[in-house]
Design brief:
The chain is an alpha/beta fold and about 220 residues long. About 50% of the residues lie in helices and about 20% in strands. It has one domain: Rossmann fold (3-Layer(aba) Sandwich), CATH 3.40.50. It is built from 10 helices and 7 strands. Helix 2 packs antiparallel against helix 3. It starts with a strand and ends with a strand. The mean pLDDT is about 95.
Length: about 220
């Protein structure tokens, strides 16, 4: 059985769930609209440029969750899924997941977006294994605004995957990874079958130079 790994945002989804969650909390009136939008957009541009301070971003992204009742957050996320995520799930991405599932491959999503946002999305897509940036919680299950361990961003995706492989006694033999972002080049270079899916300009150029497949889920 091979490991079939997928990035989430702008790969399986036709948008960025992290950035959209920022739009959602603005709409809900949980933050100062102008200031939050300005900062959310700036961090997203930093991500696109490959200059994102992932720790600073996660403190920003998690701040609206801090101290809130888990049941309230779960209700918000259900609303977020219906209104923001369902419309951007890409059918061709679902079909590729299903192809790997039928082949008996082990499905995984690795995403820099935090697990609060992404775990329900992975469940919706039928992907059993998720490596995401893990938010810290207190003894009552409330988010603290900090993160636990290595964030799954750039080289951190490789590190977290290697940890997972050791824990599950798995290897990368025959492995696949689909991504749109140049931030994922370290992991793309680690698997046996790297695939650039709707790549940004920097990843497209790198994929062309390396002779990697370039596909579209859109």
């Amino acid at each position: 059985m091979a490991l079939a790994i997928f990035d989430l945002d702008n790969t399986l989804l036709g948008g960025d769930s992290d950035h959209l969650w920022g739009e959602f909390v603005i709409e809900k009136g949980l933050v100062d609209p102008a200031a939050h939008k300005r900062q959310n957009d700036r961090f997203y541009q930093d991500y696109c440029n490959g200059t994102l301070d992932i720790h600073a971003y996660q403190r920003f992204a998690l701040a609206p969750l801090v101290g809130r009742d888990p049941h309230e957050l779960a209700q918000w996320h259900r609303e977020f899924m219906v209104r923001y995520i369902e419309p951007i799930i890409l059918p061709k991405g679902l079909a590729t997941l299903e192809n790997h599932r039928q082949a008996g491959d082990t499905l995984m999503i690795i995403t820099a977006t935090n697990a609060f946002v992404t775990r329900p999305i992975a469940e919706r897509l039928g992907v059993p294994h998720l490596l995401a940036t893990e938010p810290a919680r207190d003894d009552e299950g409330r988010y603290t605004g900090d993160i636990v361990g290595t964030p799954t961003f750039q080289q951190g995706k490789v590190e977290r995957l290697q940890e997972w492989l050791r824990q599950h006694d798995e290897t990368l033999q025959g492995s696949w990874f689909y991504s749109d972002s140049h931030n994922d080049i370290p992991l793309l270079e680690t698997v046996d079958h790297p695939v650039a899916a709707d790549p940004d300009d920097r990843l497209r150029l790198h994929a062309q130079q390396q002779g990697w497949p370039i596909i579209s889920f859109r």
